[in-house]
Amino acid sequence: MNSAMQSYSNIVLIGMPGAGKSTVGVILSKLTARDFVDTDLLIQISQRRTLQDIVDTDGYVVLRNIEADVLCGLSVKNCVIATGGSAVYSDGAMKHLKSDGLVIFLDVDLPALELRIHDYRTRGLAKRPDQSFTDLFHERCALYTNYADITIACTGLTQEEVCERIIDCTRELQLNLD
What we know:
The chain is 48% helix and 13% strand. It is of the alpha/beta class and 178 residues long. The protein has one domain (10-172): Rossmann fold (3-Layer(aba) Sandwich), CATH 3.40.50. The protein has a five-stranded parallel beta sheet, with helices on both faces. It is globular, with a radius of gyration of 15 Å. It starts with 9 loop residues before the first strand and ends in a 6-residue tail after the last helix.
């Protein structure tokens, strides 16, 4: 953390598919009186198709590029932003989000993620076709950790408890999120 007195307009949630970014984001937006932005939804609206259709038709690299463009073009204030799991592949997008956002990594362990997601083939994952979910998990965790200002260990917590931890962490750091 660069400065304990840093003031951020946005809260940016990063993490694996199934980590609860969208669900936690909606609850957190209510608790902190912020708007909610789901960047996966923005991608689908801008492309007029699902993430899975983009991957199936154009490949995972195209999805990652579209995501980077959407994130870099995002200009919002006082929002909770739930990013797609692959947002961390774009350094430019992450720097843009961090310029006015506190980045929070929702860290969920692999067994919990596997219980939450039943069919990875319909999830619209931006991963190589030969890459297992386990390999993707290990590859991305290093990226999430790199960009995170705060990491919340979410395994075993309810979404409400995750929100409480986020709010508690921001208070401890004396960040202006209220």
